[in-house]
Specification:
Layout lengths: L14 E4 L8 H8 L3 E3 L8 H10 L7 E4 L13 H4 L8 E4 L9 H6 L3 E3 L6 H17 L1 H9 L3 H14 L7 E5 L3 H14 L2 E5 L6 H6 L2 E3 L3 H5 L4 E4 L13 H6 L4 E5 L8 H10 L2 E6 L7
Parallel strand pairs: 1-2, 1-3, 3-4, 4-5, 6-7, 6-9, 7-8, 9-10, 10-11
């Protein structure tokens, strides 16, 4: 008489290490993910770097196949994902996905060496950052911060001083050149908006040139060398990823290549700017105005 064999246990599902607070928006997507994967969500106290590293060493969460950080506000308590941290991950990890458009907090080269694919949320903030950049551009040309602060001060002297000085300090952005370093998703969105709204002439420098069709849509001129572009730039916009080393792009030498009276806007990373050099250029008048959406040291 044949012996009935016990059915084999079903294969375990892939496991995801979830970093950060609970999902608030789009729970349907999370629920779909949770239906196919086992989610491990450590408390925030376990995410601070010393504790997080110890838990990885102790294999508290055993093997997992992916890492997910769905929110920008939490989940980054361990700090930069450098070699010290990445080498503690189990060899089963294949994917690390994080909110945010950049990747300067991750040594992507080290992750690649360990066979880990890093994914960011590059397109999620394109329109929001693009709109903010448009405000920054018109602000540095029209000196809107100076005007607004003077009006809100309720000080007649400050108001009249701004009222008389602003016509001489302000410029119309129309037909001025916008030099963009980094024409990725966000940089291209800004270029489209500035070209359509202000009629600005678009120039750009990037490691990858856009297609002729994309360049034609914004009447853009590509510069393989950034120095040549800077010499022709009325307003410089940084929209490029930061490097993991954190070396600045905008230094006193780069600023010196800009025409006197040029404007500057940074929507990328604060670490790309030598802020002391920028402050000196503003005081000397070499840079007429600057708008910083980010800073090197933020709370």
């Amino acid at each position: 008489m044949p012996i009935a064999m016990s059915p084999s246990p079903p294969p375990s599902r892939p496991r995801i290490l979830y970093l950060g607070d609970n999902i608030i928006h789009n729970p349907e997507i999370y629920n779909r993910l949770a239906s196919q994967f086992d989610i491990i969500q450590p408390p925030l106290a376990h995410l601070r770097r010393p504790a997080f590293m110890q838990h990885l060493k102790d294999r508290t969460w055993e093997d997992f196949q992916a890492i997910m950080r769905p929110s920008w506000h939490t989940g980054g308590e361990m700090g930069r994902w450098d070699k010290e941290l990445i080498e503690l991950l189990p060899p089963t990890v294949e994917v690390s996905a994080s909110a945010g458009a950049g990747y300067d907090w991750v040594d992507v080269g080290c992750m690649a060496e360990h066979g880990i694919l890093y994914c960011n949320g590059g397109s999620a903030s394109t329109e929001a950052v693009g709109d903010m950049a448009l405000y920054d551009i018109i602000s540095v040309f029209r000196q809107m911060t100076w005007s607004s602060l003077a009006a809100r001060s309720t000080d007649p002297k400050r108001f009249l001083q701004a009222h008389h000085a602003l016509p001489h300090a302000s410029r119309n952005p129309r037909f001025h050149t916008l030099g963009i370093v980094g024409l990725g998703n966000i940089g291209f969105a800004v270029a489209k908006k500035a070209h359509a709204a202000f009629g600005m002439k678009i120039m750009y420098h990037d490691i990858v040139r856009k297609s002729p069709e994309m360049e034609k849509s914004i009447d853009a001129t590509f510069f393989p060398g950034v120095e040549d572009m800077l010499r022709r730039t009325d307003c410089l916009l940084l929209a490029t990823p930061s490097t993991f080393s954190g070396r600045p792009f905008l230094t006193s030498d780069i600023i010196a290549l800009l025409p006197r009276g040029a404007r500057f806007v940074n929507i990328a990373r604060g670490s790309l700017v030598d802020e002391d050099a920028l402050a000196d250029s503003l005081e000397s008048g070499h840079v007429a105005a600057a708008a910083l959406d980010v800073h090197a040291n933020e709370p």
